[in-house]
Amino acid sequence: MKRLMVSGALIAIGFTVSAQDLPTNAEPGKCYVRCKTPEVWKNEDVTIEVAPAYKRIVTYPAKYKTVTERVLVDEGGEKLVVVPAKYETQNFTVVTKEASKRLEKTIGSPSVENVSVVTKEASKRLELVPAKYEMRDVVVTIKEGYKRLVNVPAKFETRDEVITIKEASKRLVVIPAKMKTISEEVVVKEASKRLVSVPAKYEMQDVVVTVKEASKRVEIVPAKYELKDVVVTVKEASKRLEIVPATFGTETVSYKKREYGNKLRVVPASFTKDSEVIEVRAKSANWQMSERAPDCTSSDPNDCRYWCYKEVPAQFTTVDKTLLSADASIVKTSTCNDADTPGGCGNATYVKRVMKTPPTTRTIDIPEVTKVIKKRVMVTPPTTREIDVPAVTKVVKKRVMVTPPTTREVEIPEERKIIKRTVVDVPASTREVDVPAITKVVKKTVMVTPPTTREVDVPAVTKVVKKRVMVTPPTTREIAIPEVTTTIKKTIPAVQGAREIEIPEVTTTMKKTVMATPPSTRTVKIDQKYATIKKTILEKDAYSEEKPVSAKYKTVTKEVLVSKGGLTTWKEVECKLVTNTPLPINWNLGSATLTSGAKRIIDARLLPILKDGVAVAIESHTDARGSRTSNQSLSERRAQAVVNYLVSKGINPSKLTANGYGEARLTNRCKDGVSCTEREHAANRRTTFRVIDQK
Q: Which fold has domain 576-692?
């Protein structure tokens, strides 16, 4: 009974899955096949570093050589010899009367011009632009929204405990809210303003107009002169040089007589062992069909089955590798220690004569020779004095705006209306009522959730009223009033000025002694003295050479899922293809080899169907002549020969099934021991195909 229930459940699941997967909008008389898309995998090569790259160090010792060096032991120096100054006589010009200027008066001619005078200024007058109004709908709340409380009872559960079986609790009694009606004054027309125009005020005023502008006339004031004593240099001041000789001394010079190199010690690289787990095939899943239910009444072997999408675990491989703990390095130590050697490693000295103070010169001043001469000098330059000429004026009448035009605001009061609305006077609340505890041994009812209240919103009640609103406030528009002018004649007086006349200066020629070349010194060189010393120098210090050792790699092939397979869509097929359709292949007697004619039949009838993505079952049968075992083997080989040919044409092997039935499914009476014609035996020798569900 239990097995029957399990089988029934499996069949129900299979029918449910099939019902859910059936094609939509199926047409009567049509046949459909469910196609499966196979999983597509590809191989990827993953390269793993199993041994790291490191460096190997080779050291080489230091190299020395002895050299002879020429050093300076006496710097030599220089001595100075005085070269005296050279003088010459030159002619120079002295100004005995400076150049000056005198002023000559110039007078221009007067002129008359027309002047435009404003007799009435431009102004503006204001024109009133009234305000604009419109009626709008205003939403007024006549009853405010509020919240009422709904009682949510407590939740209880029973537990196995000693003593109390129902704890003391409380229940809530809802006290409803109290409402009241109030009167409220609402503005239905807002207060506004209108503008009243106030015109400008004008008056006539006397305006003074200048018909002849004030001017000035120029009067010349002559220059003033006087004679002054001027000191002239007839021989310039100069200098003579006196030599101060150089001073010499000796000093000890240290030099490096021998250089010392370094010793190198190699610390080789160190390694550690490790391993790495590589995923060579990712986790996936595929569709699998269950076995046929044992109590299935359908004759179709594909019925009474259900599909399962089962997970395929990932596959891993472990690769051993070597890690670099520390790379190769070198330790450098000196071949000589200055702390252990007095005076330092390889140091020596020699005596050298040096100049302490260089030769210099001391300058002795020679004063200049001068002479006093008389010179006429301008004390006060010529100037001009301006005398004011007053302006001539005339009085004319002019209309002037005293007060500009303005506007005066007149208040328009607002309109109000009294409406009634209901508001919450006292909000809803709850009152707790005690529920006493009930006790008994063993069972106990415990309150899991205490009683609460839930707020329910009661919406406000509103009413739409009409309200007059000012859209555009009243303004004013300015209108320009042009100014009025009149033309009068105006005399411009002649301009007086002064013209400068140059008076050349008066000069005289004198002689003076000038130093053509200043005194200087000439340097006489003293030769340097040299000595020869020997010293050992470091030709090439100890050095190391790094030789890189390349890393080692291992390539692991990894399978990667390119596209996921599974049940996809239903495809329409010809109904005759769902049943076994004959494939008229003429097999040679006892042979399972396809002839060229058989291949042409497969290309014409079977390949176009398979290119639509459906799955096909190939079935082959024999007649009853011969043994049952040989007939079964021959039929299986013939069905497999058809499948192999289709695979060579590029058909996916997962879409092909080969079944051989031998003489098990005869179509007529021609069994063993029955006499039949060759035509009747040929009816049993057949190869068929039919479209099946994809497994």
A: 60s Ribosomal Protein L30; Chain: A; (3.30.1330)
